[in-house]
Amino acid sequence: MSVSDATAAPALGAGRPTRFSWRSRLLLAAAVAAASVLLLLLIRTGADDVMRWDFRFGPSFDRRLRTAAAIVLAAFCQGVATVLFHSVTHNRILTPSIIGLDALYVLIQTVGVAVMGARFVDNSDTIGQFVLQTAAMVLFAAVLYRWLFSGRFASLFLLLLAGVVMGLAFRAVSEFLQRLIAPSDFDALQIKLFGRLGSVNTELLPIATVICVLVGAVIWRRRRILDVLLLGRETATSLGVNHRRELTLSLVLIAVLVSVSTALVGPLTFFGFIIATLAYQLAGDWRHRATLPMSVLLGIAMLAAGQFVLTNVFYAAGTLTIIIEFVGGVAFLAILLLRKGTL
């Protein structure tokens, strides 16, 4: 099964010649990402407000290493899931959060705090709760896909609409419960409702890594089929691709990646959108062999560099995800609504 670039590229608006090959661009992005991670790991600001190289192994280095690992996993999950979601929906305005997984995570945390109090937050980073939260979000997505794709009027747009409606319902219930809990419990809950990169449980990293490697291997093996899906349902079917099966499999893999990322570091609604949009502009190739790794590398560079600057310059590392969400919202309005014809 093969599709010529001359046929596919003009249809995707990516047929313009580029000065640098996609491999060169990936190497440059990898160098920037590696440099950002090394800066985060090896430079530390001391009590005298001076940044110095720090090669000593100890609690401080372990904490930075844990943050770097969480950054790599979050960038991988969000970048791959968003690019894959854009490919199967043929719409770069949407993000995987439209399915309602972020809202379900918020509901799980809110119900837990409403029932158990602040101690639910204290125990929420255990392996058991991580597995249960991830399984709950994946199960929700699987039931939703099964329900909407097994009927006579199965439709991707019906799935997205159902995801929006259920996400709104989850948020409404969460907000109602948040008004009923004690103020101290509400303050503890807020910690879990924003992305957190510096407070990840080290025991969760191996589990998340194994899941990401397995899902990434499946997606990479099917990257050529994903390229064909970009051509549309009719064209993909005529080329021998089982469109419904590939669509369902892709959505399940997206749900797994988003669930792992959300359970590990919290909701990152617009982060995947930012790095996926930049990857389309900078990859130099419309195919997934370039856009998937480019989105991951850009995500690593953005998170690591942002964490380094906020930690060592502004001493406000906890605000990184809030800034990313704000920048993502602005980018959504500026790029997709005001300049949507350029994507």
Give a description of the structure.
The protein is built from 15 helices and 2 strands. By secondary structure, it is an all-alpha fold. It has one domain (18-342): ABC transporter involved in vitamin B12 uptake, BtuC (Orthogonal Bundle). Strands 1-2 form a two-stranded antiparallel ribbon. The chain is globular. Mean pLDDT is 81; it is low at 1-17.
Would you kindly provide a brief summary of this structure?
With 343 residues, this protein is mainly alpha-helical. It has 15 helices and two strands.
Characterize the quaternary organization of these chains. Answer: single chain
Report the strand count. 2
- The top level CATH class name: Mainly Alpha
Order of helices and strands: HHEEHHHHHHHHHHHHH
Query: CATH topology, anyone?
Result: ABC transporter involved in vitamin B12 uptake, BtuC
Radius of gyration: 21 Å
Low-confidence stretches: 1-17
Cα shape: globular
State the end-to-end CA separation: 27 Å
CATH homology group:
ABC transporter involved in vitamin B12 uptake, BtuC
How many H/I helical runs? 15
**Average pLDDT taken over every residue:** 81
CATH architecture: Orthogonal Bundle
Strand order of the largest sheet: 1-2
Number of domains: 1
Query: Portion of residues in helices?
Result: over 70%
Reported for the largest beta sheet, the result is: 2 strands, antiparallel
What is the strand content?
Answer: under 5%
- Class from helix and strand fractions: mainly alpha
